[in-house]
Structure formats: C-alpha cells, structure tokens
C-alpha cells in the first residue's frame, strides 16, 4: 500500500512513522508512506500556499493552485484509489472505513490547515472527506496520522498475530471484552475463573457476553444493532 500525505508541516508527521508498528510495516515494505511538502508546489518564490478569503472574514485559506499542482504531479506516477481530505466536517472515521481503506492500493491524504482549502479543491479533486471527531485541530496532520495508524495495522503481515485486529472493538459493532494477564491474583483481586478453565468454547461465550454487556452500558447506540 502507498500513502502520500500532502502537508505544509511534514516534520510534524515524521515521528508517528518512526516507531512501533508503523515503523516495522514500512521497514518490511508492506506500506510506503511519503510526506509531500505542499510548499514545493507553490506558485511564487515565497512558497505561499494560503491567501485571504474572498468576501472577507478571519483566517487564511489554502490556495487551489499549489494543491492542484501537487496532486497532478503525484498522479503522473501513480493511480490512486482515493484522494482523502482531512476536515472536521467530513464523515466520522469508524472501523468500517478503516477496514475499507486497508484494502486499497494507493491513497492521497490532504491535510487541511488555516480555515481550510479553497472549495474547488473539494469539488474537483477530493473523493472522500474524513473527520476523526467533532472538534477542530490546528491542522489535519495529527488526524492523518490517526487514519494511517488505524488503516496500516489492518494490512496483512503488519501485526505479528493477524487475528488480533479482528477482535478489536468495533469490528463487529461491539466493544471488546475485558482482558487480563499475569498474575492471576493481585492484591486479592482475582481474574474470572472461566479464563483459567482451558475450555475455549465457554471462554468465547463469556467474552461475547461481556462484549454485549459492555456495549449495552457504554455504547447503547451500537448495542441496538444486535437486538432482534
């Protein structure tokens, strides 16, 4: 999978891809992540990529020309399945979206900044708009890192135990059940006896019951999907 991230702050995105699971995925060449500096495609010597909004108002707007030039240059060398714009008013990222994106070959992620991008960018270049929540960040870089993390970990070969991702919360519209590890007793607090039984079928049933219980309590909106 190839992910090209267009940003005005590439340095801000370097760290997430230099550690842990994402780093190993890149080193194993399972995924290729490129940080594209939008200022390299500016139309003047000052590397300007933003300007005042027509009609007035506070804040600057990312210009269409640098973005159009950048996307055109990238598309000369690659066909992309999606061109994603990170924006607070996009569709809220969920597990199903991450599952879908993990099946693609090549994507572009455009990080918003300032007061956003010229609307013509969204109308003519963007194929999908994604938000990571109902709040506003200083830019789309951190949101893009969240999307990449949620997607890359699902690609076959990235996790040492590929079944791990399949049991994550939200994969089946249920929250994950409680988990425990050694010691089996600490400070008088014992783990559920069923987990020590060695009876896999009963353990699976217990986990399902706990998933339903936790989902009903914490996310009743998801729980209703499991009612007849």
**Individual helix count:** 7
Superfamily (CATH H level) name of the largest domain: SPOUT methyltransferase, trefoil knot domain
Indicate the CATH topology of the largest domain.
Answer: Alpha/beta knot
- Tell me what portion of residues adopts beta-strand conformation: 15-25%
Helix/sheet category: alpha/beta
The end-to-end distance, rounded to whole angstroms, is 39 Å
Main pleated sheet: 5 strands, parallel
Q: Round the Cα radius of gyration to an integer and report it.
A: 22 Å
From the coordinates shown, what is the CATH architecture of the largest domain?
Answer: 3-Layer(aba) Sandwich
Number of strands: 9
> What is the CATH class designation of the largest domain?
Alpha Beta
**Overall shape:** elongated
Mean pLDDT: 93
Helicity range: 25-40%
Total tally of structural domains: 2
* Poorly predicted ranges: none
Major beta sheet, strand line-up: 2-1-6-5-7
Which series of helices and strands comes N to C? EHEEEHEHEHEHEEHH
Structure description:
With 228 residues, the chain is an alpha/beta fold. It folds into two domains: 151 residues, 3-Layer(aba) Sandwich (Alpha/beta knot), CATH 3.40.1280.10; 58 residues, Trp Operon Repressor, Chain A (Orthogonal Bundle). Helices cover 30% and strands 19% of the residues. The strands form three sheets. A five-stranded parallel β-sheet has the order 2-1-6-5-7. The longest helix is centred in the C-terminal third of the chain and has 19 residues. The relative contact order is 0.15. The model has no long low-confidence stretch (mean pLDDT 93).
């Amino acid at each position: 999978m190839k992910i090209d991230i267009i940003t005005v702050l590439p340095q801000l995105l370097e760290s997430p891809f230099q550690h842990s699971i994402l780093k190993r995925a890149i080193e194993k060449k399972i995924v290729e992540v490129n940080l594209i500096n939008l200022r390299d495609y500016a139309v003047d010597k000052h590397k300007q990529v933003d300007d005042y909004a027509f009609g007035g108002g506070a804040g600057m707007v990312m210009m269409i020309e640098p973005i159009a030039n950048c996307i055109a240059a990238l598309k000369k060398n690659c066909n992309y399945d999606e061109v994603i714009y990170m924006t607070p008013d996009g569709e809220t990222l969920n597990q199903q979206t991450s599952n879908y994106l993990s099946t693609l070959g090549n994507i572009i992620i455009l990080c918003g900044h300032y007061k956003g991008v010229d609307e013509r960018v969204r109308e003519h270049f963007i194929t999908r708009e994604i938000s990571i929540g109902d709040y506003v960040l200083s830019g789309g870089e951190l949101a893009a890192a969240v999307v990449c993390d949620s997607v890359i970990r699902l690609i076959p070969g990235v996790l040492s135990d590929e079944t791990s991702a399949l049991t994550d919360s939200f994969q089946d519209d249920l929250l994950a059940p409680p988990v425990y590890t050694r010691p089996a007793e600490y400070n008088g607090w014992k783990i559920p006896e069923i987990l020590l039984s060695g009876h896999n079928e009963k353990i699976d049933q217990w986990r399902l019951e706990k998933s339903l219980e936790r989902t009903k309590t914490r996310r009743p909106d998801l729980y209703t999907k499991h009612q007849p």
